[in-house]
Design a protein that fits this description.
A: 271 residues, mainly alpha, MetI-like fold, 10 helices, 79% helix, flat, B: 273 residues, alpha/beta, Rossmann fold, six-stranded mixed sheet, 10 strands, globular
Chain lengths: 271, 273
């Protein structure tokens, strides 16, 4: 900002630019070193331990290349992505309004709060046989599993966000004659968006777990299937390669979640 | 109302003749605790009434009753003759905590009241810059509240209230959260702005200087429950500027109000807090 401030405000610190850049580059260095060290330990351990249990990093990467080239991994990835995407999107579409309604409608809150907390606390894996019995095999039950894994963090963070709106914001809106729908548009939803983003980030991580669980215990498919069949063949390198892909996927998706969170919480200022 | 030529209240209160705000027998209880009771007050259509009194005397609650944000336990408030049951049109509040929405830019915060009043997007785009200019925030239209100092945030709060061109301005210790220097700057800004567009204004403050400087009348609330202890007419000329504070009469009034607030004739425990 180029305008000079007439009033006394918190002084901005232009001198901070350089140390920040230095800190960022040193963080990058640490990050790189940590990756290298992890790969090195993996490599070393791989050479010391029976290859049925652990395969060195380099062999895993080589096998990963083969799986990509043969088309096995891309096919599996695509199948998994469909389950993951559909489940997560439905979870977000259901979770956001559900959390908001829970926060703003007393009747729903009193009636449903403990049910939701109970379901959230419950290990979702325990529900899988139940879902299998009702929906059978196929795409739908897998999406339902991912949905169940992912929806609760969204509902609960949105609910907690929307019920922590400071009373002064509501009072200001009321003093300008806001009705409930105006309150939603100008206060409840904008205030809750950063919380929703946190919920979505948590949901991404849980959906990934749900995806693999569904692919293991329902009709095997996608990355879960790849892990299962390669481990039955004692193709440990392929197992590790697939797990590595899941991990990288997780890291990338969570980074995306963080970016979303920061983007939508810009008004909170640097914390 | 009966058609008696003169209402009892009107006799001792000249402002009642053209009063915009009429407060009659107003009281507020929280459970057993009575905050204030039996408040009668009239505020004219271009009159500034300041409310002072010890902490916890219910000044702020009284202001919220005038806006209909808090329902009184007894009595009523009328604005232009209409009983207040919810925040009325044409009344705007400036809050001690500024009350800006942190997720909206200065422009959108200032525009908020107009949007709520159903003003068209085009009219908003025309009117908002003028009010941002009026409070001296030009260049900060797209800033978020966290990027502004407290004084600048309250300028935005003031612009938001003024933008709806209210006939009643309710000021809830508007400068109470600011440092002394910023506070003084904004006091004189507000006086300057008020001179160009006089409205009915109820101004709650902790500062006796501010009460005398701003008010046409200073209402001292006191007692447990508090009531209107005394009303002091402030006969300082307008427009009021920095020079007003050097007027000997300003100091006389200030001392008078100070003694009223601090003296303890009816209360053995009226020391603040």
């Amino acid at each position: 900002m180029t305008t000079t401030t007439p009033t006394l405000g918190p002084a901005p610190a232009p001198a901070a630019a350089r140390p920040v850049r230095r800190r960022r580059s040193s963080a990058l260095l640490t990050y790189g070193a940590s990756l290298l060290a992890g790969a090195a330990i993996w490599e070393l351990a791989g050479h010391l331990i029976d290859p049925v249990f652990l395969v060195p990093f380099t062999d895993t990467v080589r096998r990963l290349g083969e799986l990509v080239a043969s088309g096995e991994l891309p096919t599996a990835l695509l199948a998994s992505a469909q389950v993951f995407g559909a489940g997560l999107i439905i979870a977000v579409l259901v979770g956001l309004p559900a959390g908001l309604l829970l926060a703003r409608v007393r009747f729903l809150r009193v009636g449903l709060e403990d049910w939701i907390t109970g379901l959230y606390a419950m290990p979702m894996v325990a529900l899988i046989p139940f879902i299998l019995a009702i929906f059978g095999f196929g795409f739908t039950p897998k999406v339902i599993v991912v949905f169940l894994f992912a929806v609760f963090p969204v509902i609960i963070t949105v609910y907690e966000g929307a019920s922590s709106i400071p009373a002064r914001h509501i009072e200001v809106a009321r003093s300008f004659r806001a009705r409930e729908r105006h309150l939603w548009r100008d206060v409840v939803i904008p205030y809750t968006i950063p919380f929703a983003m946190t919920g979505i980030r948590l949901a991404i991580a849980r959906a990934l777990v749900g995806m693999i669980a569904a692919e293991f215990f329902l009709a095997v498919s996608g990355l879960g299937e790849l892990i299962l069949i390669t481990s039955r063949r004692f193709d440990t390198a392929a197992v590790f390669a697939t797990i590595l892909v899941v991990c990288i996927l997780g890291v990338l998706l969570l980074a995306l979640g963080h970016a979303l969170e920061r983007r939508f919480a810009a008004w909170r200022g640097p914390s | 109302m009966r058609s008696t030529p003169r209402d009892i209240n009107a006799v001792h209160d000249p402002a009642a003749a053209t009063s915009r705000i009429q407060i009659r027998g107003l009281g507020k209880y929280f459970d057993e605790l009575c905050v204030f009771d039996d408040i009668d007050l009239d505020v004219g259509s271009a009159e500034v009434v300041t409310l002072v009194g010890p902490s916890g005397c219910g000044k702020t609650t009284l202001l919220r009753c005038i806006d209909g944000l808090v329902a009184p336990s007894t009595g009523e408030v009328r604005i232009d003759g209409a009983p207040v049951v919810e925040p009325p049109e044409g009344v705007a509040v400036v809050f001690q905590h500024f009350g800006l929405f942190p997720w909206k830019t200065v422009f959108r915060n200032v525009a908020y009241g107009l949007r709520m009043a159903g003003v068209s997007r085009r009219a908003i785009a025309e009117r908002v810059p003028a009010f941002i200019e009026l409070v001296g925030l030009r260049g900060f239209e797209n800033s978020y509240p966290y990027q502004l100092s407290g004084g600048m945030q309250q300028r935005a709060g003031l612009a938001r209230a003024l933008a709806v061109e209210p006939k009643v301005l309710l000021m809830d210790e508007p400068f109470g959260a600011l440092d002394a220097q910023t506070r003084e700057v904004l006091q004189f800004e507000l006086l300057r702005i008020w001179d160009t567009r006089p409205t009915s204004m109820v101004f709650v403050t902790h500062s006796i200087d501010e009460a005398v400087l701003m008010g046409d009348r200073v209402v001292v609330l006191k007692g447990r429950p508090s009531t209107v202890h005394q009303v002091i007419d402030v006969d300082l000329a307008r427009p009021r500027t920095r020079a007003t504070t050097t007027d000997p009469r300003f100091h006389e009034l200030r001392e008078q109000v100070w003694n009223l607030v601090m003296s303890t004739p009816d209360d053995h425990n009226s020391v603040e807090r």
